[in-house]
Amino acid sequence: MWKWFFVVFLGFMMMGCGTTKKLTSQHKIDSLITTIWEQNHFIGFLVVDPVTKDTLYSLNAEKYFTPASTAKIFTLYTALQHLPDRIPTLKYIRRNDTLYFEGTGDPTLLHPYFKDSTAIDFLKQNKHLVWHSDNYEGNLLGPGWAVEDYQYYFQVERGALPLYGNVVTVYQADSLQVVPTFFKDKVVLLNYPLNREETSNTFYYDASRGDTVAIPYRTDSVLTLKLLENVLRKKIGRTTKLPDGEKSILYGGNTDSVYKRMMHESDNFLADQLLILSSSTLSNTLDGNKAREFILENQLSDIQQPPRWVDGSGLSRYNLFTPESMVLVLGKLYTEIPKNRLFHLFPAIEDSDNPEGEALSPSKPFVYAKSGSVGNNYSLNGYVVTKSGRTLIFSFMNNHFTKPASEIRAEVMQVLKRIRDRY
């Protein structure tokens, strides 16, 4: 393995010494990857200088890969293009003493982390409320999501008016704590292999475990109405159509706080809701597909290999992206967003072998990148800051390997360190 790295890094060092040397270096790296890595799995690797537009290295950059959570880079770009600095949390129309309102897909309302109550406080101020409950056209789960994962936090149902992050949060303090309390009678204290029944909101929690568990609940409009009435302590009407007229918009929390948590925690729920939220700026009905289609047809119409992009989170294995398209979007972000803000949104990786950003050494970060992992696939896409002060954009995608993912992550980091040191 180290023999391979020596030759790979030697190849990188030869770049910049003339066109012939660059081509020779590329050939040497290609031949070694072919003999050592491709016998086990498939690699795509692209490194570009966004200032000079030079391609420093390219391997299978135009080929499609399963991106896993690095698809959130496209979601981030879409949200930044469509959403203002504050989250549009509700749309509404007043008629006499009645407020008609609808959700926008805002994921932060009473969320266990954000705990945003902007919409709740606003609704409490109105005597009569009527909720438009039929403005979401998408599905609760994304295409290609595993049915058996319904009980885990990484696969939460989507919708127009999510409350509490669409999860039940359970933990043991002096007594059993359940948020929202609406579900307290639905929690069974039992050491059981399931967190929740598949077809009902019956939850299981082992009180001896001592940690906090977030369990997705099954959503529907009747339940959402009950949860709203419970927190507002008043009856709410329902309608299938808002009155005619221009809708007003209520704005909530800061969007960057949502982007950062999506990227740093790789939060699938936030990612998919951000696409739904983005669609609220495009039409009167909500559907993440509309946001994806719009951005690909407009701001990203110059992508040479259009992605197969089916969800905002990257949870689906149906997603297919190329390193070249990843670098293109990363380049647009680098050009359009101030560097300090951009690097704040991306996870920072320091001089450590851990590309997940954990247990970092006190040294200065040199990689700002989003990772993505799903069985037998690992990708890391973002920016590497070199010792000379250059910022380079890279996409490193690995599919279909059988060895431990930790080994792949370590190999990726070794290559990025050499790029940092050489350039």
Automatic annotation (TrEMBL):
SUPFAM superfamilies: beta-lactamase/transpeptidase-like. It comes from Aggregatimonas sangjinii. Belongs to the peptidase S13 family. One of its GO terms (biological process) is proteolysis. It comes from the Bacteria. One of its GO terms (molecular function) is serine-type carboxypeptidase activity. InterPro entries: Beta-lactam/transpept-like, Peptidase_S13. This is D-alanyl-D-alanine carboxypeptidase. Pfam families: Peptidase_S13. Signal peptide: none annotated. Keywords: Carboxypeptidase, Hydrolase, Protease.
